[in-house]
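Checklist before submission:
- one chain only
- standard amino acids only
- sequence pasted in full

Submission:
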Amino acid sequence: MEAFHMPSLGADMEAGTLVEWLKQPGDAVKRGDVIAVIDTQKGAIEIEVFNDGIVDSQLVDVGTTVPVGTPLAMIRGESEAAGGGEPPPAPEPPVRKAEAAAPPAPPSAAEPARAPEAAAAPGARRSISPAARRLAESRGIDIASLSGTGPGGAIELADVAAALGGAPEAQKRPAEPMSGMRVAIAAAMARSKREIPHYYLWNTIDLTRADAYVAGHNADRPPDERILVAALFVKAVALACGKYPEFSGHFEDGRFRPAETVHVGVAINIRGGGLVAPAIHDTASLTTEALMAAMRDLVARVRAGRFRATELSDPTITVSSLGERGVEALFGVIYPPQVAIVGFGMPAERPWIENGTVAPRRIVTATLAADHRVSDGHRGALFLNEIDRLLQEPEKL
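Returned file contents:
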């Protein structure tokens, strides 16, 4: 018998709220099966099991918020499921939400009574953003009475504001400017800058050949089969990590553990603010077409607020691009426990010297922020140059 725990989905996660059980006691599960959905500042995330077996019991009720590492369920192994031996005792289950709910204190004369939390409402299995929950509670709105317009019917800040008949609270109360997403990002980035000795490098790369390759590839294909130059960026970074492994992996407990397989995290903007960088697994082994399809799938699911737990916990290096926003270069902040982030700016026509003559070429600025505990500027320069070399032969990516 093994406990299935609330996973950690990154340096900015301390707790999660169980939204839905997708497997029930008695159901068989295999490694990689989605067992539940949890809500964090990043959205609703599907969490997977890591062992084959049978769900023995659920230890946490839907609607309960528990810290990372809390046992959520017990999984019986295949041998135990077949009756092989007596299973070890299950861990003490966490306090259920019904047990944890203390009777509310009577309101004072100066303070109106607040509505009960959504978790205590009969049959309430609602997804609601932290900012929306705070606003509803502060204004005495029953969450069960609200209609959600977010992904999967989730209640968002604008839904609570609409129920109030006015503008979102963020416009009225400047004393509460940070959403849960912004707080999480701020905590992770503050930790990064505090703990990681960053160094920064940049290089200008001639994209003319890569652009020509993309144009030729897309000429006779429908839109859903076309590739973008961004897919070449991600593939080149993954292949360069194979030659310079000190840029792909995790620094934890005072030591660097290089990744056996490169999982590139692709930074994606979330509608409504914030961003996540879920992983594309085994990036170096994918064709550019398969990589482009994976990137489209990630963007669609992130914008819908649904993605997998392993996609957030597995990235070994991050690639970020703000080229479509019109910036020439970006210098990223490393997301711990990763040790590097590569950025690409906006490709632009520039005068370029080629074989002694000046000609217009398509140029992009690539940047590297890396961890000085693991690598140095010499290796970082070689790493960026390898990305450049790979992009000059896009047909081999």
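Reviewer check: The chain has eleven helices and 20 strands.
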